[in-house]
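[job 0412] stage=fold_complex status=start
inputs:
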Amino acid sequence: MSNVYKKLELVGSSREGVDDAINRAIEKASETIRNLDWFEVKEIRGWIDDGEVQHTQVTLQVGFRLED
Amino acid sequence: MSNVYKKLELVGSSREGVDDAINRAIEKASETIRNLDWFEVKEIRGWIDDGEVQHTQVTLQVGFRLED
Amino acid sequence: MSNVYKKLELVGSSREGVDDAINRAIEKASETIRNLDWFEVKEIRGWIDDGEVQHTQVTLQVGFRLED
Amino acid sequence: MSNVYKKLELVGSSREGVDDAINRAIEKASETIRNLDWFEVKEIRGWIDDGEVQHTQVTLQVGFRLED
Amino acid sequence: MSNVYKKLELVGSSREGVDDAINRAIEKASETIRNLDWFEVKEIRGWIDDGEVQHTQVTLQVGFRLED
Amino acid sequence: MSNVYKKLELVGSSREGVDDAINRAIEKASETIRNLDWFEVKEIRGWIDDGEVQHTQVTLQVGFRLED
Amino acid sequence: MSNVYKKLELVGSSREGVDDAINRAIEKASETIRNLDWFEVKEIRGWIDDGEVQHTQVTLQVGFRLED
Amino acid sequence: MSNVYKKLELVGSSREGVDDAINRAIEKASETIRNLDWFEVKEIRGWIDDGEVQHTQVTLQVGFRLED
Amino acid sequence: MSNVYKKLELVGSSREGVDDAINRAIEKASETIRNLDWFEVKEIRGWIDDGEVQHTQVTLQVGFRLED
Amino acid sequence: MSNVYKKLELVGSSREGVDDAINRAIEKASETIRNLDWFEVKEIRGWIDDGEVQHTQVTLQVGFRLED
Amino acid sequence: MSNVYKKLELVGSSREGVDDAINRAIEKASETIRNLDWFEVKEIRGWIDDGEVQHTQVTLQVGFRLED
Amino acid sequence: MSNVYKKLELVGSSREGVDDAINRAIEKASETIRNLDWFEVKEIRGWIDDGEVQHTQVTLQVGFRLED
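[job 0412] stage=fold_complex status=done
writing structure:
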């Protein structure tokens, strides 16, 4: 009912773009955290090499319920 | 010439990602509003289930011209 | 080592969405600037016509190393 | 599933404080809007008279699901 | 006493400048809304043509009291 | 009519919570300032001891009319 | 003297309001963390059901001293 | 040389618009403060009556040099 | 169609006020840049002398289309 | 216990850098204010002459306890 | 390649100033975390005693690569 | 009198800390730009290697007067 949640800040990166970088960060987080519930995008940036985007990086906060 | 515009705040959601969530919100708004002119993304977040992104939610403001 | 970088602010636009608009801005910048190193997304907005997204516009800052 | 939501901005006021001002705004909104789903506090301010708080005002955005 | 207010976001535009753009937005809003009470400027921007300002656009929120 | 107001920034603290911390700050300010007119909450924080909230601190700006 | 502190981001929720949601988050955090020292409120939001506030959610950062 | 400055926050209001509201606040401040050096606009808002702007209010910070 | 724009940050100043400071910055920019398209006000400040506003300074970003 | 604090905004400047500018502002404030308790840096800027930094300016808020 | 990073928020404090407070926080973090990669300063504040700065506190986020 | 200024965004980096990073950016800019007048710090971050700060990076905007 009156749950308490914790939020972590992660940065996912991908050669394919914003959506994939989000997915990779969530996927990685779910390896060690149960009850992942939502995410909030805080920043989108990326690295350029040879005049082309090499990686898109998405910083996000993920929230998960603390168990009783 | 010296038009007045109104802005509404909407949240579109999609299983596919950011671009599709934007499209769905615009599409829904266009059912009832004429003269939709531009949008501005205010927030990107989403819901996670079973360690995977279930919905990406994009909050946007849409602007439309008020008719004389 | 202790390099100095310069940042420019660009707006890329695309009919396809956020990732493509980023790519187009980087591509255009790389025509005249060497050593492009990173980008940061500042704003996502777009234009609507006939109730559909016509262009997604992404404002980004690109950073590049100043040569000695 | 892939719902679209709309957000409205309201200001509730109360002689009793923050929580009551929120409740009053939600109550008023629910008179005319169905499917109210969540709120976000944007600002807390108030009016003073004779050296005492007269009204606490809470600006909030309320989100509700648009029906199909 | 413990009134509830609603805020709308409008964009006024004018060939003359900031104050006139505000006035035009308020004037337009007052055609359909009673009890307009205050406004807050959120953004000032504009369009340029032939090296001169063509329109100044002021985005503002207007607040009005909801009637009982 | 065309009054000029001054704003001060204060921090009120209370063992009871947000509303009481606001009241205490206003009360203290009214000991030395006449014409207090409004307040705006800027920050809510607090101190913890032994795993419990000891004081809630509310930073607020108070506005008062300068006399002619 | 020259301590290092760590900050965690938590979300407390309560049926009673802002102060209680803060207390619940601190209480939960204190079950596993010693030396909790302060908190900062980052966001207040909540869920609505049947036209009434069901839960107030307060996002806060809590700071605690890292032991030597 | 290595001066210290103090900043005050004022709100000027005017029936004529933004520039005049700034001037009135500066004029009032200069009655009691010497060495006023610069101002920064923080907020523009105003009051509406009968569907027309009654007062434009400009919140500004003014900086002045503290004398040795 | 899918144009790329560049944004520059300028500061215009004027003895007359906000609108004139904007005009002067745009006018100056148009001496060397073609295709100026829009501006966004970022900051309004100014210098005071002898208790009166001497210059209003408006910081703005101007956007212009990069030619193919 | 439930103290009330006041915050002032100061700008310290120094030829040596950020830390020294902070110290100078605090030192100046302590000439006239007792019970100075904490400071918060709001802005770092500075003046350049002949291609070199002449002064670093640090804007800070200082908090002090109001006496009973 | 497509790494995932985690960010922690720390507060370093020092009697010497900003740079030293950053170093102390990084040093402390590196006792328990491998792969520390970057930091971002979020806030600079400090404590005053007897009219002098006692500690400068720098809040920073540190990012580190999660191992596969 | 009514000058127009341009602002550029630079990132200086240094092994020694914040003040030195600012100096290096200004020094580099002054190689190609005359009339540099002021700077504003936008961001402080840095790179870590082997558990120690390797470079402090300061993002700043520098303003310079456009010549007639």
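[job 0412] summary: Chain C has one domain: 5-65.
[job 0412] exit 0
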